[in-house]
Amino acid sequence: MSSTPLAPTCDSAAAIGMSPAKGSRLDGGTLAIVVVTVIIWASAFAAIRAGLKAFGPLELGAARFSIAAVPAGLYLLMTRPALPRLNEVWRFAAGGLLFVALYTALLNLGERTVPAGAAAFIININPIITAVLASFLLGERFGRWGWIGTAGSFSGIGLIALTETMGNEAVGSGAGLQLGWGALLVLGAALCNSITTVVQKPLFARHKALTVSASNMVIGALALSPWLPGAYAQAQTAPLPGLMASLYLGVMPSLVAYATWTIVLSRMPAARASNFLYCAPPLAMLLGYLWLGEVPTVMGVIGGLMALGGVAIVNLKR
């Protein structure tokens, strides 16, 4: 929920309190919207890699959310939602600072060295991190299978980092540890997503999901605004593909995909709908190959499948 992008990933939609839809039948129209949503979110990882060829990591984030914040701000002005209570202000602030600004910074910094497909696999363990946090902070049960799945997912991430490090050393760049750190930065982005899920869960009892999302975008854009002048300067000499990638990131994963996802959630139970998001990492890997020519390694694919398999174990056994 890119990118993952400004959207709940895997089963986090249910975790943040979105009500399941009354119906559960998957008709053709709903399936089409699901497919569009998954494709857009999966493409965000390749788009970030493309945008980083024209912008610095923080400048790309500033450009992306300066675009997304405009319609988000207009939405808030037009709908005039209820103002947050004093005890809710910090939850809104956390969403913008963690889920937008810091998440974007860490993901963009990580994707300087981590391929699009590998980054998507790492981000997609967000439900596991959320479950672990919920077990400690909310007292939710997290049994033996949960820890087994968690161990499997983190082992897969370790394999991805090791594989990238070995691959970098193989070409004699002398910066093998950089790729390993890149994977850790992407993992940090997933942690930001999970913390926000837990912190903002109480907001959905009083505020609409789109209100919270729009607020996150505006606050996050303000936090990233110090890098906006640098983004403008880099845009003057940026190649057209990089400019188009930044525009795509601001419009499609940040705005369109979230809107289509809310439509899906209005037609299907959140838990069932979230299962479709497991298609995003393999699709991101395919798009990384088609868009950027990134050829995944065998060990990288194995690590990604281990990470995704751990998520499946946790969800099936909870």
Automatic annotation (TrEMBL):
Q: Which UniProt keywords apply?
A: Membrane, Transmembrane, Transmembrane helix
A cellular component term, taken from the record's GO annotations = membrane
Specify the signal sequence span.
Answer: none
Superkingdom of origin: Bacteria
Listed InterPro entries = Alkyne_AA_exporter, EamA_dom, EmrE-like
Q: Where is the EamA domain?
A: 33-161, 181-315
Transmembrane ranges, per UniProt, are 28-48, 60-77, 89-110, 116-138, 145-163, 175-198, 210-228, 240-264, 276-292, 298-316
What is the protein name stated in its UniProt record?
Threonine/homoserine efflux transporter RhtA
Please give the organism.
Nitrospirillum amazonense
What broad taxonomic lineage does this protein's source fall under? Bacteria, Pseudomonadati, Pseudomonadota, Alphaproteobacteria, Rhodospirillales
